[in-house]
Design a protein that fits this description.
Layout lengths: L2 E6 L6 H14 L4 E5 L2 E2 L8 H9 L3 E5 L2 E2 L5 H8 L6 H12 L4 E9 L11 H8 L3 E5 L5 H14 L4 E9 L5 H14 L3 E6 L7 H7 L14 H8 L2
Helix pairs in contact: 1-2, 4-5, 6-7
């Protein structure tokens, strides 16, 4: 796996922190890593974007790349239109990812919001970039109520496009999970049609960077380079 597309079932659900955890585990294993953010929205000139946050958490050995930055916190196509700027199409994303893959062991392409958020006026999405790359997609989902529906829809959208869903990671696992969160540990992989590959604790992005890097492997399954076990986790939370 050279290129991995990281998408979400929505926005503000821990996608950047999950991307950073995957990058940190890969760096700890001695792999060279690049993180590609096709369209960074809601961030102005000189401000830190998601790719910068991945570098901060995972280590300076990660190469950050942004293709475009739009100031308003909107879907990329809308943000580009309102800023009077050219949008980023899936072909540009695929080309940039392939170039990075020539020089890195792992390229993480972090999308904006959910899988089918529009990137340009033609309605093309991150899913189109994944198709051009032939890359698997890692889906980040929230832990609580509503996540089963969103994970189901995202899984169906991936399969309808012939894309491979590597698995699902819970982006922010609460310290005191309720009944819905505990049950979702069992139900998420069933409705998504893909395995549960990790659970990142809430607030992980606020950890000291040394702690984040040391603990990241414990949040992710072996498919992502870690040692997290879904069955052990489910038993521990009483799902």
């Amino acid at each position: 796996m050279t290129v991995l597309v990281v998408s979400g079932t929505g926005t503000e659900i821990g996608k950047t922190v999950v991307t950073a955890a995957v990058a940190a585990v890969a760096r700890a294993a001695g792999r060279s890593v690049a993180v590609l953010k096709p369209a960074q929205t809601g961030v102005g000139p000189g401000e830190r974007g998601d790719a910068d946050e991945v570098v901060r958490l995972a280590g300076d050995g990660v190469t950050p790349v942004e293709l475009a930055r739009f100031p308003e916190p909107l879907a990329p196509a809308t943000a580009a239109r309102r800023a009077g700027m050219a949008p980023v199409g899936p072909g540009e994303v695929a080309e940039a990812a392939r170039k990075l893959a020539d020089e890195h062991d792992l390229v993480l392409v972090e999308g904006a919001g959910g899988l089918l958020v529009r990137y340009d006026e033609e309605g093309r999405t991150l899913a189109d970039a994944a198709r051009l790359l032939g890359a698997p997609v890692l889906v980040v989902a929230p832990a609580g109520l509503g996540t089963l529906n969103m994970a189901t829809l995202t899984g169906e959208a991936l399969r309808a496009r012939g894309l491979t869903q590597l698995g699902v990671v819970v982006g922010s696992w609460p310290e005191a999970p309720g009944l819905a969160e505990r049950c979702n540990v069992t139900d998420l992989p069933e409705v998504a049609g893909a395995p549960l590959l990790g659970a990142v604790p809430a607030g992980a992005g606020a950890l000291a960077v040394a702690d984040f890097r040391a603990r990241a492997a414990g949040w992710l399954a072996p498919e992502l380079g870690g040692h997290w076990d879904a069955a052990v986790f489910a038993a521990a939370v009483g799902s």
